[in-house]
Design brief:
The chain is an alpha/beta fold. The protein contains seven helices and ten strands. Helix content is 30%, strand content 24%. Helix 1 runs parallel beside helix 4. The radius of gyration is 17 Å and the shape is globular. The chain binds S-adenosylmethionine. S-adenosylmethionine binds next to helix 1 and helix 3.
Length: 214
Amino acid sequence: MKNNISPQDYWESRFKDIDPETYDFSESKPAATLAHFCDKYLKEGDTVLDVACGGGRNAHYLAQRGYTVYGIDFAKSAIEFCKKRFVRFNLSGTFKQGTMDNLAFPNDFFAGVMCMAAIDHVTTDCARRVLGEIRRVLVPGKAILLTFDHPKQDEDIIHLAEVLVDGTFKYIHGEYVGMLFRRYTDEEIELLIGKQNIISFDHTEEGARVIICK
Ligand SMILES: C[S@@+](CC[C@H](N)C(=O)[O-])C[C@H]1O[C@@H](n2cnc3c(N)ncnc32)[C@H](O)[C@@H]1O
């Protein structure tokens, strides 16, 4: 059993062997919901933050649309990949290594914040802090885009993971060892965000949840 691998170790390993010079970028499309969010909630040139940006598929799209893009992720390998990716495509953006529940940005700095397929990869306590931090760095009244994966994305999860006290799974077997995954129900997501803060709550065909909120 390899359960001493931390979530950060897991994510570092996901990005460490990929090279923007040889990477197949056709595999790296932005999240389908991002265009709608930009059209409806952002204006030209806005400053935006991609929280837990991973390999930068969403940051890439945002930069191509002309926004002033910042990205943070705790995996150094992901941040390095994003920086090289932006150089390769001649895009402008700022990437910082950091944890998403302690954002190293001033208050009221961003006109839009997105956190895609990531807030369900931390514990619920951490997710609450992430939302607090996103709200702190967001200009009051502006919108947040969040996605949560399908709650039953991995039917066999119980055989592969241990369950932490708050119900978050931590993988201890298989290819995701170290990764955290909290399978929220729709009701739990509403509780986490606060129903009164939710502008829209949609389900993709694959069953992921797409939330625009304050
Ligand atoms: C499934 S990937 C999603 C990446 C990107 N948002 C996307 O949509 O392609 C989850 C990302 O969350 C990052 N992550 C997980 N926990 C984190 C934390 N506590 N602080 C910062 N980043 C974190 C991982 O390093 C990884 O890049």
